[in-house]
Write a structure and sequence with these properties.
Blueprint: H1 4-12, H2 15-35, H3 39-58, H4 60-74, E1 77-81, H5 84-97, E2 102-105, H6 109-113, H7 116-122, E3 126-129, H8 132-140, H9 156-166, H10 176-193, E4 196-199, E5 203-205, E6 210-215, H11 219-225, E7 229-235, E8 239-240, H12 246-258, E9 265-269, E10 282-288, H13 293-296, H14 312-316, H15 320-323, H16 334-345, H17 347-350, H18 362-366, H19 373-385, H20 405-419, H21 421-433, H22 459-470
Parallel strand pairs: 1-10, 2-3, 2-4, 4-7, 5-8, 7-10
Antiparallel strand pairs: 5-6, 6-9
Length: 474
């Protein structure tokens, strides 16, 4: 994260990237808007979605225990991981127990969060991405720039060259269907030869012990069905209370993410395969903390965990649509990443992200579960610059990462100056008299703005002069 500003400058000065993202985000915004023509109905659905997520979070410890019990009763093995390292090690232990050499992966942002692919490769296990966007990025040795459409920053021409160079017998073509068919032929082999299938999870139902995955390509269903072992990885906040809570959340998720009434596939997994069924002989669920329990402990910060990963906030954010996802330098970019990543990585590593926002409120206006993202950004900014009081416990790792004695002194001086009429008048008079001594540059401000120079006369002196000359009252 130390080169955040360099990445921002790099992507702002890439006209092709900015044009492609603007076009893509406009398309996604229009798709979402077309799915919600009745605003009253939409607001009612958002209220329902927010209440479901808040209720689940209010009961999170109990629901997780209930979920674990139901899953174990159903024959699914549950593993708890406090850190990315622990989660990766659990996957490796399962792979070694089965002598696995390959892992076919459906889409999983948590595995991106833990950098599972890199870990497995170092340990001699080959991960193969089967989601089309993730497959493209794996071939390109690249990272996702969007949580729903990970390869959205890639052009058709770049993908055509990538497939030509990496897929045997694939000639250069910009025909999307031909490119997808070429990738599908390669992945079919991987599905049938892979020892383990690994996916993410969209929701976990505590009532029934059910894992829910939504997708459009069928790769998720192949990953969870063809290999003999299925491993699901997810954050522990994805649990919901009952099956009745699922339909509203699915409606909000799919319509907000891709403008679809429902995705092509909705996979609901409650057990390994039973007599006469297809599917894996073993199912494992890895529940990852990785800092999620830190915001959970704070009533305001807890709202971060309501997220259902639809990316609507990213699609509508004026900052993200101009930068793309790579400038953020984290697994989760955009507005949701700016409030989630500080908890996962600590404010020392992400101190600039809460400030990478205009606070325009577009994100909160479209969030399907009503996360007050601007309020949480302001809270993180505040936590980043204040020192803890004696005996006070930090609500986030890296608390006070942006605190400096110089800035503290500057704000104290400003407060004193603007709370004292006498000091303010003295300062205003001095600023006008000595305006010629204004420095030519002001740190940060003049990088992108015109230098502010005091006027020859202050507004107060101009008003006073006018009244003296005209005898008028204003």
């Amino acid at each position: 994260m130390n080169d955040f500003r360099e990445r921002v400058d790099r992507d702002l000065n890439n006209p092709l990237l900015r044009s492609n993202f603007r076009e893509a985000m406009n398309f996604l915004m229009d798709k979402r808007s077309s799915r919600f023509p009745d605003d009253e109905q939409l607001q009612s659905l958002r209220d329902l979605g927010a209440s479901i997520r808040k209720r689940a979070l209010s009961k999170l410890p109990d629901l997780l225990e209930q979920l674990e019990a139901r899953l174990r009763d159903n024959g699914i093995r549950v593993h708890w991981a406090e850190s990315p390292e622990q989660a990766n090690q659990i996957v490796l232990d399962i792979a070694r127990h089965h002598g696995a050499k390959t892992v076919i992966k459906g889409k999983s942002m948590v595995s991106e969060e833990t950098e599972l692919n890199e870990f497995l490769e170092q340990e001699g296990v080959t991960p193969i991405e089967s989601d089309m966007g993730e497959y493209i990025l794996q071939l390109a040795e690249d990272k996702p720039s969007h949580i729903v459409m990970p390869a959205i920053h890639k052009t058709r021409q770049e993908i055509a060259h990538l497939f030509e160079d990496n897929l045997a017998g694939c000639e250069y073509t910009e025909d999307v269907d031909a490119l997808i068919l070429a990738a599908r032929k390669e992945l079919r082999k991987a599905f049938h030869s892979a020892d383990i299938g690994l996916t993410g999870v969209n929701f976990m139902v505590a009532e029934t012990g059910t894992l829910v995955l939504v997708e459009n390509e069928g790769n998720g269903r192949m990953s969870t069905t063809v290999p003999n072992v299925h491993i699901a990885m997810t954050g522990l906040e994805k649990v919901i209370e009952s099956l009745d809570d699922l339909p509203p959340l699915l409606t909000l998720l799919t319509n907000s993410a891709t403008g679809q009434p429902i995705t092509t596939y909705v996979n609901m997994i409650s057990s390994p395969r039973q007599q006469g069924e297809d599917g894996p002989e073993e199912v494992h669920l890895i529940l990852l903390d990785n800092g999620r329990t830190i915001p959970y402990a704070d009533k305001e910060m807890r709202q971060t965990l309501q997220c259902i990963r639809c990316a609507a906030c990213m699609n509508h954010c004026p900052v993200y649509t101009r930068l793309g996802g790579h400038a953020y330098g984290t697994t989760y970019p955009g507005p949701i990443g700016s409030i989630l990543s500080p908890h996962l990585l600590g404010l020392e590593e992400t101190k600039d992200l809460p400030s990478a926002s205009t606070l325009c409120g577009a994100c909160s206006e479209v969030c399907p579960v009503r996360i007050p993202i601007p309020d949480l950004l302001r809270r993180l900014r505040h936590e980043g610059v204040r020192k803890l009081k004696s005996g006070e416990e930090a609500v986030i790792r890296g608390h006070g990462a942006k605190y400096t004695h110089t800035e503290k002194a500057a704000w104290l001086s400003w407060s004193k100056l603007y709370s004292s009429p006498a000091l303010y008048r003295t300062f205003a008079l001095s600023a006008t008299l000595f305006r010629g001594l204004t420095p030519s540059r002001m740190k940060g401000w003049t990088d992108h703005r015109t230098l502010p120079r005091p006027a020859k006369k202050s507004l107060h002196s101009l008003v006073k002069s006018y009244r003296k000359q005209n005898g008028a009252s204003l």
